[in-house]
């Protein structure tokens, strides 16, 4: 089916986002680890430091727990830190706000002419920091470069548009894209090959297209665009800040764009400080970190109460969007009754309360209460070990079998949860053996389908989970190996439906079928912790929309 082909092509982007988020949620791998290793050997460590405020200046330090791969919008991979760090300089067309509504950034509107044509209109007030207007030509130029085979960015998924090859690229040296055309100086039409919902276009494309100033960089060759230092020190931006110094393992330092068209920032400087998760609390205590974010900054669960008690700092729990997903390889565990037994044999509410102090929720299917499409009439399967035993008996389960359960060695909280789950499965007659592997190995095992059960933190975009859901339930090549005509039909209609209630009904069909057949389940959905120093005003840690109005942040 067309839906399966499109969903499969979306996988590169979905996994890029998954990788970035999962690493962030586990504390990431940062330069801080390298420094600690050197110190352990007795070597001096000269760690680069971010900028400080001069007398009379206002500065804000944002703490994150993952490194920054690039500040070049043409090399964007969907990672959270990369996206937001770059978006401070080059605004995307559209962004989600705190309530998960789409908010115009460079664009003031995006509309669907039909199921394949989308009109992007640039805000007439939008100007570059040198005073030149942001135009349709900037959008066309950036889109063309995103499809350049020389630049070679496959993660942006532009194969969805007319005129772009299925590999995501145009011909080398191409000067236009048939499916991305200028309507007038402020309007661009995007035409897709297959039907696409407006939500998918906005979430997967408009949020990640960060137009560049054509008039400033059009003289660069495609080769130069991949390595030119201009992107680390741009002198023309559309956003509220400009980078002044950059060390991808330790920090990014910005200065305010006084000519920002939405209003000059109230703070003079901003740093993104990259640290270990275990260093966030100390940074907040010492005043070296002013604010953190639910998805870019991962506190160890054992620090939650200390952060909540920290004087002058406000703890903020985010919407439940990080799903601790458990996937079952249906080719290996073939009987739905066995998979149902695995689900009702575990006490998910107990695990949530004991390990996460109740900061999250238990749901069935893919969608959490953070999604506008969440169906609260779907009651999660309850803990019922006697029912699990009955289901196993009915399925003729061979209790001598041992299932292999792969988990991320970097996710200490879930390793504890997995241990509880294995004990509860053992109690009903299912032997399960935990295999802890690093994240890269876990992804390799998942891709090859070499597991019986596998768990990983996974974020399903609350406003547009289509790509992930379609892939994960997309047949033998997907992680679950599961497919269902009922699910396929519902998902095929998602791409044609633009109203919330209609889309909610379709995802409800999917989640109910997943609850019935159990190719996956949610161990729990995490409400992650962020924190903000009370000296900041106008700054609120929210899962989405964090930097949308950063120009209004101020220091008391």
Key phrases:
D-Maltodextrin-Binding Protein, domain 2, Dipeptide-binding Protein, domain 3, single chain, five-stranded mixed sheet, 2 domains, six-stranded mixed sheet, 556 residues, alpha+beta, 31% helix, globular, 21 strands, disordered N terminus
From the coordinates shown, what is the CATH architecture of the largest domain? Roll
Number of domains: 2
| Main beta-sheet annotation | 6 strands, mixed
- The Rg value, from CA coordinates, equals 24 Å
Distance between the termini: 57 Å
- Provide the helix percentage: 25-40%
Helical stretch count? 17
CATH class type of the largest domain = Alpha Beta
Written account of the structure:
The protein is an alpha+beta fold and 556 residues long. The chain folds into two domains: 1-89 and 239-317 and 530-556, Periplasmic binding protein-like II (D-Maltodextrin-Binding Protein, domain 2, 3-Layer(aba) Sandwich), CATH 3.40.190.10; 322-526, Dipeptide-binding Protein, domain 3 (Roll), CATH 3.10.105. Helix content is 31%, strand content 19%. It has 17 helices and 21 strands. It has helices spanning 2-25, 31-40, 80-87, 136-146, 198-206, 214-217, 222-225, 280-286, 304-308, 336-344, 348-356, 385-395, 412-428, 439-448, 466-472, 485-494, 500-517, and strands at 59-64, 94-96, 102-104, 107-112, 117-122, 180-184, 187-191, 241-247, 251-256, 269-274, 291-292, 313-317, 322-328, 360-361, 402-408, 431-437, 453-459, 520-526, 529-533, 536-537, 554-555. It has a six-stranded mixed β-sheet with strand order 14-18-13-17-15-16. A hairpin with a 3-residue loop joins strand 8 (241-247) and strand 9. Helix 10 packs antiparallel against helix 12 (385-395). The radius of gyration is 24 Å and the shape is globular. Residues 1-9 and 11-45 have low confidence and may be disordered.
């Amino acid at each position: 089916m067309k839906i399966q082909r499109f969903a499969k092509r979306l996988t590169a982007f979905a996994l890029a986002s998954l990788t970035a988020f999962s690493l962030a949620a586990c504390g990431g791998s940062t330069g801080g680890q390298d420094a600690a290793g050197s110190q352990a050997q007795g070597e001096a460590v000269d760690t680069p430091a971010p900028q400080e405020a001069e007398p009379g200046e206002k500065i804000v330090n944002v703490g994150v727990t993952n490194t920054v791969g690039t500040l070049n919008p043409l090399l964007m991979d969907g990672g959270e830190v990369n996206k937001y760090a770059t978006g401070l300089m080059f605004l995307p067309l559209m962004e989600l706000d705190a309530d998960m509504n789409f908010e115009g950034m460079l664009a003031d509107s995006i509309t669907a002419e039909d199921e394949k044509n989308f009109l992007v209109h640039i805000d007439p007030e939008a100007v570059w920091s040198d005073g030149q207007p942001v135009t349709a030509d900037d959008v066309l130029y950036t889109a063309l470069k995103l499809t350049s085979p020389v630049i070679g960015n496959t993660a942006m998924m532009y194969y969805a548009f007319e005129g772009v090859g299925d590999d995501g690229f145009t011909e080398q040296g191409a000067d236009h894209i048939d499916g991305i055309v200028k309507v007038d100086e402020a309007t661009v039409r995007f035409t897709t090959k297959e039907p696409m919902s407006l939500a998918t276009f906005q979430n997967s494309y408009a949020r990640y297209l960060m137009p560049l100033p054509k008039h400033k960089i059009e003289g660069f060759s495609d080769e130069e665009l991949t390595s030119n230092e201009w992107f680390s020190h741009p002198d023309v931006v559309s956003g509220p800040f400009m980078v002044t110094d950059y060390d991808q393992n330790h920090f990014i330092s910005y200065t305010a764009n006084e000519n920002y068209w939405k209003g000059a920032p109230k703070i003079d400087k901003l740093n993104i400080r990259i640290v270990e998760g275990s260093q966030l609390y100390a940074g907040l205590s010492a005043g070296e970190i002013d604010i953190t974010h639910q998805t870019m900054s991962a506190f160890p669960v054992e620090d939650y109460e200390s952060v909540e008690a920290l004087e002058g700092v406000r703890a903020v729990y985010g919407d439940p969007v990080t799903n601790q997903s458990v996937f079952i390889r249906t080719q290996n565990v073939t009987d739905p009754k066995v998979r149902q037994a695995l689900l009702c044999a575990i006490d998910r509410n107990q695990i949530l309360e004991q390990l996460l102090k109740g900061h999250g929720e238990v749901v069935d299917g893919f969608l959490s209460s953070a999604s506008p499409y969440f169906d609260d009439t779907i009651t999660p399967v309850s803990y019922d070990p006697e029912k699990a035993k009955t289901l196993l008996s009915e399925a003729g389960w061979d209790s001598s079998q041992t299932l292999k359960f792969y988990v991320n060695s970097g996710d200490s909280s879930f390793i504890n949860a997995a241990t509880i789950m294995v004990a509860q499965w053992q109690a009903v007659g299912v032997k399960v053996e935990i295999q802890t592997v690093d994240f890269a190995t876990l992804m390799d095992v998942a891709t090859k389908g070499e597991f019986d059960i596998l768990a990983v933190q996974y974020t399903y975009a609350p406003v547009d989970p289509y790509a992930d859901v379609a892939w994960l339930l997309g047949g033998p090549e997907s992680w679950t190996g599961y497919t269902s005509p009922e699910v396929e039909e519902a998902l095929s209609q998602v791409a044609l439906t633009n109203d919330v209630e209609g889309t909610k009904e379709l995802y409800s069909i999917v989640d109910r079928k997943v609850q019935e057949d159990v190719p996956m389940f949610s161990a729990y959905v995490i409400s992650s912790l962020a924190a903000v120093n009370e000296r900041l005003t106008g700054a609120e840690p929210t899962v989405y929309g964090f930097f949308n109005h950063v120009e209004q942040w101020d220091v008391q």
